[in-house]
Amino acid sequence: MKIKSLFFLSLVSLFCITINLEAQTGKTGAVRVVVAGITHGHVSWILNKAKTDVIEIVGIYEPNKAIAEKNALKFNLSKDLFYSNLETALDKTKPEAVVAFGSIHEHLMVAQAAAPRGIHIMVEKPLASNLKEALAMEAIAKKNNVMLLTNYETSWYPSTFETFRLIKEESYVGQIRKVVFHHGHQGPKEIGVSPEFFNWLTDPIENGGGSIVDFGCYGANLMTYLMQGEMPISVTAVMNQFKPSIYPKVDDNATIIVNYAKTQAIIQPSWAWTFARKDMEVYGDSAYIIAVNAKKMRLRNKEAAPETEKTVTEKDIHVFTDPFSYLHAVLRGKEKIEPYGLYSTENNVMVNRILEAAIQSAKTGKTIYMK
Q1: Staple 133 to which of 31, 108, 164, 336, CB 3.0 to 4.6 Å?
Q2: Which domains does the chain have, with CATH numbers?
Q3: What is the reported pTM?
Q4: Which of 32, 33, 28, 30 is nearest to 43 (CA)?
């Protein structure tokens, strides 16, 4: 009964936000955005695109003057774009949306500033550094009827959506029994992230954890979509510190087992992989699908015993290859937010539920049963 009630409330919230978005569909051209924080390593995705057909940066909030000046020079941006106070930036520039590229813990502050002003919000994954903050963000977005999106790189992958299509439209795998996710890389220091990114990424408050949060969120996000928001029965996890001299405050490796009534997910985030990877394996009672990377797939079913390979691109399946194109499409009424879609609020609150249970399980050595 509780799950049905949560689903109903999510649909009501989605309906209200849809009405708010439909009121804006008369607008045309690029979406005016303020960038809130620029310490995230992914910020180059937007600073390299200060003005395009889909977005226009009208302001950048960054309280650290040295970081602001460094990025202004690096990306050839006018210093007039920069503000040291977020509310001032929002009030002076009046953007349609704010995109957060600071620490995960700062996402709540961004939502608290933007939502009451009727400004839509997109954050980098995960939604929040803990469940309490995620619920607070969800509540303030609902109260103000604004969109609250979370961006994941795997949301741009043609292989992700071809996997979903095969499962949904062709019932290719039959009943899903096990899904295995591998996400991560050699480690933030090992791949050379910036000092400002490293400082909060390895902080248990600012990031919410180590690899378990940084990369565990990917599998939880994809699995929540596959299960259409079904509440897991239980979560069991272990965390490791293989490199305590580099990451003394947080984990650098984890394994999360998420149990559902008929399905199991094994999420394996790590800062200790031999190489960077983001792949997904879906096993059913009649076939399997392995999304090896953004475009390459491997498939095998009972009727065709030999494994086959498949390459899929954005020409083969509808997919937005960057988050800002998706943001533009939603705000211009060209795309609807799918219930429990990868960017959606209800999906990403569930992600935080799973991550919180996983961290609690790892710390206590007990399986956490979800309520």
Answers
A1: 108
A2: 2-153+325-337 (3.40.50.720), 155-318+350-369 (3.30.360.10)
A3: 0.92
A4: 33
